[in-house]
Design goal:
Order of helices and strands of chain A: HHEHEHEEEHEHEEHEHEHHHEEEHHEEH
Strand order of the largest sheet of chain A: 1-3-2-6-8-7-14-15-11-9-10
CATH topology of chain A: Amidase signature (AS) enzymes
Oligomer: homodimer
Strand content of chain A: 15-25%
CATH architecture of chain A: Alpha-Beta Complex
GO molecular function (chains A, B): catalytic activity
Domain Amidase (chains A, B): 34-440
Protein name (chains A, B): Amidohydrolase
CATH superfamily of chain A: Amidase signature (AS) domain
Number of domains of chain A: 1
InterPro entries (chains A, B): Amidase, Amidase_CS, Amidase_dom, AS_sf
Organism (chains A, B): Actinoallomurus iriomotensis
Largest sheet of chain A: 11 strands, mixed
């Protein structure tokens, strides 16, 4: 285990964290204007390959960076994100900046209000450099179906970045920005974060306001941060959640972690399992195998709940303008329309029952752990793969290990767990509702643990 | 306006209220054993015509009456229901006493535990004389589809009693018992209470525990009391809700009542509207016409929500034993199975929006008022009728004015509003959540108001 090597050709922020820049910015050794130029330069260089952005807002970003620079010079300090370039998923409204949902329906839509989470970002002094690519309407885990085309994985451009927050993950992994904002309904932050080798947090349902965020399935939708390190992820989380320094919890103590063998939920590549298990071992926790017998059923219930809710959002548009959707997206929406009401009711019943069972488990174990995604990033457009000995449906596989916790509304973080065949694997940690601080602290601990074992100059880089 | 004349041949409890018997019982002028014999005698005499009971528990009732008599003699007083005969709908579990749901599936089922509401009844000293007829599985407002056949209206035996608590309403109207227990999902207490000319309360959702009560649609199901007078209804309500005397509210003050013209929701017989309006006029309130633009949509949403939830309850049984259902009930369940998940989600969204709108209205008006049912009791088996100039579907009509408040989880009471062509009409009052005391107090006020205007010996009786 070690920190991941950065993708080839990665930008400035593959070598600079927000945490690391804090002192530099305040000492005047680097300015917000310098940082935004680094971000824009990396974007210009890497975009042709990655396709991580729907819109780059060079003018707006430069203006914001200038204000941030002037403020710092005048002694106005908005906190750790002051002057830091951030990318925001293109389903989150940004006043005056095009927000398309990755769709042809909203190709020219310019919102006149910021989403609450964007307002918080701006108030914290963050510099929004652009809007990141999303699977169309954030409805899909592959990140390769969108009006603007597929986003590519920075580790191997013929592979998918994962979705739906494909661009937010790719932009961070490629060092274009140090942190980005995604949304997660069944895994849409965690899946691309895992496949691109970055840290991604799906908060407890309801922890970050979703106003001004285009809905996928309201009972599941969350807004979450992505970053290269857990420490940076935590800085953005605090801003998104509207937390002040005073509200931050004391460093929580984690002793017992329940490891869920992922094959009990969905066939998983043994090497992915091994990588995640090894990453967890770095923490020195008391790790015990646990069973969550409801998890596989929850992964199925996810599709029932999400399908019903997503079609309720899209029914009118499907009736009037189905041809503007990506063909695969429209076909999946037609499938979602066929879910029956009684099936939805039963899935919600399961959700209630399983919430009790998992809550009980989380009284015994401080956290649950499992791989984030059962397979490394598949090739673009691939819809069938192998996981170990089993043939799997790619979309089902990508969502299988993340969606159960979404159904339960629980917070979960993914952190990089090394490379498998040159592609990132992710370790997922799941906490009780409200346990975001706990997750990020443990992710940071695991990161530090692996870092300490590295030689000063990483041999493999 | 006046109190309703009792149906021809009605039993002892058409002339004796619980309130009126309180002193008699304690003075020893009548005993619980006397009362149970009156109830059983009336049942024996009237049952061949009414079919209000699935099971009469003569032995159990006599034993309970004996204990109640002994207790009173020994100075043990369990409160106002001590020694009072009560009938319980046959979807509510009674330990040791057959509970069939009005269905062939459960023809021989004898529960080993009481439902919580039954345990409360017994603890209050009530004497359960039997289990009342219900539309099969409490799934239908007509009361004429059940394994045991149709229940008949005490005012005209060729008419339906309404449902689904058909037997509970008929048994009270016919004076077999003074009070009874029903369940109300979309109107199942209020509809038969109105069609049979008695008082019926549908409590706020969640106010009375539903454990041991066979579900129709859990997000809508309630347990509620029926009685000939609001005062008696209140005594049973207090027991069902587990309220002690100390918890009872002070007499609430109602000044402003919003009258909802029922035709804004569903075509309504002008004479029913007139009867309900006249009954309300007796209260001396400030009555103002109000619009609830969401109400008609809520009545439609009711069918979507209830259909999805009821099929979730019956899906397995429909797959394995569809032939044991009444044919019409099975056909309606098949329709319920076809409701889509996204339609359910949209209906729940409407519920949330409308709850806000109606809650706002109930800050301006203390109560809302409208007829309970748009038409008087239709003939048994009738499925199409006229309401004024409009042709209407009977089941839709019966539920149209009650179901909107069920969807919102609000409490509502129906009280007799005179006769239309010899059949009872009902006035419905709707309160904010938790407003049961308010409803029953106003129902009592309206009852007293009409009583005061009567000559000492009612000319029309």
């Amino acid at each position: 285990m070690s920190r991941l090597p950065s993708p080839a050709g990665a930008g400035y922020f593959a070598r600079h964290t927000v945490t690391g820049l804090t002192g530099e910015l305040r000492a005047g050794r680097v300015s917000p204007e310098d940082l935004v130029e680094q971000a824009l330069a990396a974007a210009a260089r890497l975009e042709p390959e990655l396709n991580a952005f729907v819109t780059l807002d060079e003018d707006g970003a430069r203006a914001a960076a200038r204000r941030a620079t002037e403020e710092l010079a005048a002694g106005v300090d908005r906190g750790p994100l002051h002057g830091i370039p951030v990318a925001v998923k293109d389903v989150v409204d940004t006043a005056g900046l095009r927000t398309t949902m990755g769709s042809r329906h909203f190709a020219d839509r310019v919102p006149d209000r910021d989403a609450t989470c964007v307002r918080r970002l701006r108030a914290a002094g963050a510099v929004i450099i652009g809007k990141t690519a999303t699977h169309e309407f954030a409805y899909g885990p592959t990140g390769d179906r969108a009006a603007g085309g597929a986003t590519r994985n920075p580790y191997r451009p013929e592979r998918m970045a994962g979705g739906s927050s494909s661009g937010s993950a790719a932009a961070v992994a490629a060092g274009v920005v140090p942190v980005s904002v995604g949304t997660d309904t069944g895994g849409s932050v965690r899946i691309p974060a895992a496949l691109c080798g970055v840290v991604g947090l799906k908060p407890s349902h309801g922890a970050v306001p979703v106003d001004g965020v285009y809905p996928v399935a309201p009972s599941l939708d969350t807004v979450g941060p992505l970053a290269r390190t857990a420490a940076d992820c935590r800085l953005l989380w605090n801003v998104l959640a509207g937390r002040t320094a005073a509200e931050r919890d004391d460093a929580p103590v984690v002793r017992r972690v329940g490891w869920i063998p992922p094959d009990t939920i969905h066939p998983t590549s043994p090497r992915v399992t091994e990588a995640a298990r090894a990453c967890l071992a770095g923490g020195g926790f008391e790790v015990e195998e646990v069973a969550v017998p409801e998890a596989a059923a929850l992964a199925r219930a996810y599709h029932t709940i999400q399908g019903s809710e997503v079609y309720a959002v899209h029914a009118d548009r499907m009736a009037t303008a189905a041809d503007l959707y990506d063909e695969e997206v429209a076909e999946r929406l037609r499938g979602a329309a066929r879910v029956r009401g009684w099936e939805y009711v039963r899935a919600c019943d399961l959700r209630d029952r399983a919430r009790e069972a998992v809550t009980a488990l989380l009284r015994v174990h401080d956290l649950l752990a499992l791989p984030t995604v059962p397979i490394p990033a598949p090739p673009l457009d691939a819809r069938a793969r192998r996981a170990g000995d089993a043939g799997v449906d790619v979309r089902t596989a990508l969502l299988a290990l993340t969606s159960p916790w979404s159904v339960l509304g629980l917070p979960a973080v993914t952190l990089p767990a090394g490379l498998v065949d040159g592609l990132p694997a992710g370790l997922q940690l799941v906490a009780p509702a409200g346990g975001e601080e706990l997750l990020l602290a443990v992710a940071q601990e695991l990161h530090d643990a692996t870092t300490e074992t590295e030689p000063p100059v990483p041999a493999r880089h």
